[in-house]
Amino acid sequence: MSIGITDLLPDELAEALELKVYQARQLFRWIHAKQVFDLNAMTDLSKSMREELRERVTLPQIQPVQTLDSRESEATRKYLFELHDGATVEAVAIPEGERLTLCLSSQVGCAVRCTFCATGLSGFVRSLSPGEIVEQALHLLHGRDLRGRTPNIVFMGMGEPFRNYDAVVKAIRMLMRKDGLNIGARKITVSTAGDVPGIERFSAQKWQVRLSVSLHAANDTLRSELVPLNRKYPLARLMDAVRAYCDAAGRQVTFEWTLIQGVNDSLKDAQELASLIRGLRAFVNLIPYNRVDGLTCEPSSPEVCKAFAARLEAAGVNATLRRERGGDINAACGQLRARQIARPEGA
Ligand code: SAH
Ligand code: SF4
Fold first, then answer.
1. 117 assigned to active site
2. H helices of the chain, where?
3. CATH code for position 243
4. Is 333 designated active site?
5. Is the same domain home to 13 and 146?
């Protein structure tokens, strides 16, 4: 069976491919630090070794099949990748001033099925392997002029990362390696819809990787409607887990709140959120809703978004209102793929 080499750390590469450790490290460095996928180009490996490897490995495991650039001055670029079994996932590179954010997928589809989300709408297909996750970042960075920026990574693409916990953690370890992309833990954020066992495991990790919790509602009735996972892990349990996370490591948590017109954007909602998170070392990210084909949710108006943010600030909550990015390229993850799937064969 062919080996997906981006699934493996250098020590594992050495064992699986019977390489010396230094050779495995060279191979890892070519792929992860230099984003080279062509074995022929790995000139410090002997020709015979490269030929032998070609017989035994799959590289790369994912192929970009479509890219879309937004009309902004430095474009947000969205990629659709095809996996070896024909499944597809999306990832997005978002430049913003001094920052370059890479938004990665962890699963094909998502079983959580939030009512406003394009990925949830398409159902769940399968989880990604560590290599399929890391390769998204490698492709997004390949040939890109970073202009001195170190990228941030957010697991805010398709899928619920804590439903694919081990692969996501391994992918993060690879992204952080000095002989790989060398991305600092504080520059990586995992976003969860509120999977409590995942948050508990994550709290026990000895690292500074950031946690973001997609809240969207601060009472159980509304949250269970928007994020069905809330029926299993209601707010009281979720907030206990988040509190333990903050206590265990003295870390700050981010809450995501997607503002949907007439659903969760009133001043009362803002007040409820402020009360729920009072006393926590927390930060709130307000995201204007991105319209999705086939769903009736609408974004809140800019005035309503601003008033919501102002009410949070007045209640002593640190909140940022994000600008919608890449709206013209369906930047809300899951949408490009949803269109591809909806398109009739050959169109
Ligand atoms: N499953 C994880 C991570 C992927 S979703 C989670 O839910 O946190 C990443 C973020 O995008 C979540 O906060 C999610 O609620 C939000 N989101 C999903 N669809 C959206 C849309 N159409 N417009 C704006 N935000 C959306
Ligand atoms: Fe899944 Fe996150 Fe979309 Fe909910 S918002 S369906 S958890 S990807």
1. no
2. 10-16, 21-28, 47-56, 118-121, 130-141, 165-176, 196-204, 220-226, 235-249, 267-276, 302-314, 335-342
3. 3.20.20.70
4. yes
5. no
Q: State whether 244 and 105 are in the same domain.
A: yes
Domain count, the chain: 2
pTM over 0.90: yes
Ligand 1 close to Cβ of residue 215 (< 6 A):
no
Per-residue model confidence as pLDDT tens for the chain (347 residues): 789 999 999 999 999 999 999 999 999 999 999 999 999 999 999 999 999 999 999 999 999 999 888 877 677 889 999 999 999 999 999 888 888 999 999 999 999 999 999 888 888 999 999 999 999 999 999 988 888 888 999 999 999 999 999 999 999 999 999 999 999 999 999 999 999 999 999 999 999 999 999 999 999 999 999 999 999 999 999 999 999 999 886 789 999 999 999 999 999 999 999 999 999 989 999 998 989 888 999 999 999 999 999 999 999 999 999 876 555 555 555 555 555 444 333 33
Residue having the nearest C-alpha atom to atom 4 of ligand 2:
114
User: Same domain, yes or no, for 23 and 171?
Assistant: no
Q: What percent helix, strand, coil does the chain show, rounded to 5? A: 40, 20, 40
Q: Which domain holds residue 51?
A: 3-58
Is the shortest distance between the CB of 290 and ligand 1 below 6 Å? yes
* ∠ Cα 206 210 212 (to 5°): 135
Does 131 fall in a domain?
A: yes
Give the CATH number for residue 23.
1.10.150.530
| Alpha-carbon gap, residue 217 to 6, rounded angstroms | 38
* 22 and 91 both lie in a single domain: no
* 87 lies in the same domain as 49: no
